[in-house]
Design brief:
single chain; alpha+beta; Alpha-Beta Plaits; four-stranded antiparallel beta sheet; two-stranded antiparallel sheet; about 25% helix; about 20% strand; globular
Length: about 190
């Protein structure tokens, strides 16, 4: 199939091919609104004023650990921006994951523990049913927001896919948290400011 259409229409995989996204680890995710539309609100006087859809994005994200208690999920820093959403999410050790970090309990204090940082051995991505992994969490989150918008006849759509990064160490975790927390302040310089 690689020679079909001379590879012109092939979309490269968005995921890291050598990683099992059901693994116990910390992840940085970004989800964008379709066409970078400002569905989630506006920034005014240095603060984010959430629209109804933006409030739903926040509420649905905060529900994530409760909706998936068997995955031992812990949420880190996050921010809802006018046209995108950034977050750190930790998938803790559970009966569903195979490796990555050493897992850890969901201590509830909001701190990402050392055991949840991605560490060798790397696991190959498992193909098949996409459940109990990062993709299934993000699919459920996006679906819940879309359902709210449709039920309330609010024009809204997500960009297809989402961006992710496996967080490999605490320096990277701290840089990402700093970036997330400065997003509103740096909005005018953001590449998604369109």
């Amino acid at each position: 199939m690689p020679d079909k259409f001379k590879n012109a229409y092939r979309i490269p995989p968005a995921r890291w091919q050598d990683w099992d996204y059901g693994a116990s680890a910390a992840y940085f995710v970004t989800v964008c609104a379709a066409h970078h539309e400002r569905f989630f609100g506006e920034i005014s006087n240095g603060g984010m004023i959430l629209s109804e859809t933006g409030k739903t994005v926040q509420a649905e994200w905060l529900k994530t650990p409760a909706l998936r208690p068997d995955m031992n999920i812990m949420l880190g820093d996050y921010v809802v921006m006018p046209n995108h959403f950034h977050a750190i999410i930790v998938i803790g050790k559970s009966r569903y994951n195979t490796g990555g970090g050493d897992g850890g309990d969901n201590g509830g204090d909001g701190a990402v523990e050392t055991r949840c940082i991605a560490s060798p051995p790397w696991q190959s991505n498992r193909f098949g049913s996409q459940s109990k992994n990062l993709a299934s969490v993000m699919r459920g989150f996006k679906s819940a927001v879309t359902k709210f918008a449709r039920m309330n006849r609010i024009p809204f759509a997500w960009q297809t896919r989402f961006h992710d990064r496996v967080i490999r160490n605490f320096d990277e975790l701290n840089r990402i948290a700093y970036y997330i927390n400065g997003n509103i302040e740096n909005w005018k310089d953001d590449e998604l400011y369109v």
